Amino acid sequence: MTDRVTIDIQDHVALVTMNRHDKMNALDPDQIDAIIAAGEEVSTTKGVRAVVLTGGPKAFCAGLDMASMANIAQDAQGDGLMPRTHGIANKFQATAMVWAECPVPVIAAINGHTLGGGFQIALGPDMRIAAPDARFSVMELKWGIVPDMGGLHLARRLMRGDILRRLTYTAETFGAEQALHWGVVTEITDDPLARAMELATAIAGKSPDAIRAAKRLISETEQTSPADTLLAESRIQQELIGTANQMEAVMAGLQKRAPNFTD
């Protein structure tokens, strides 16, 4: 891991910080690579039960680094965007999708500018905790392009289609209160990082098997039929019942003590 993105793991919670603060965490090729690498690392690190993704005090991520536009445009020529290099995604889409596909819950702690590609990255986590001064925008049409970093897929989980169309077509900037109203933001608080860590710590106290199963169940059934959703509930529940961590959760609850789970 480079110093572009840092990872600090304590008490089963991984704090991932985009660390290009002098550029408001703007996305150039190295920053894109570092974000993907961080997501892949925490996804495979044993013992991690929750992740907090954040930027700096002035920006979560201000979007594309315009100084890199020429290099990125060159990479996109021909079929440059078409190869699926990261599962169902290309490299640019993986910056957001890596958080959606992380097997444990991810919480974004958001201050300041969250624009363009940065907004799409923020849509990948399970929750978004924003400061009152956070500013958001689906900014791509301002530069004559469309959102192409997984944002359209991820946004459909959160907002109505007409709102998504409005924000995409106009490239307008909107604040935290409006984002909360539209379902983009989960909570607004003066200290998003502290609140995100509080939530992550609460999650990390649960059975790691159940945490992963719950995220898998929710993710798999977001767009499935009622019948398929009910089948998925039964299948995943059957996998959990009677396992060591499930029994430990029951015993700890009955004995009114802290559980001792095995990752």
Automatic annotation (TrEMBL):
Keyword Magnesium: no
EC identifiers of the protein: 4.2.1.17
Pathway(s) per entry: Lipid metabolism; fatty acid beta-oxidation
UniProt-listed SUPFAM superfamilies: ClpP/crotonase
Species whose genome carries this gene: Maritimibacter alkaliphilus HTCC2654
Isomerase found in the keyword field: yes
Protein name: Enoyl-CoA hydratase
Pfam families per UniProt: ECH_1 (PF00378)
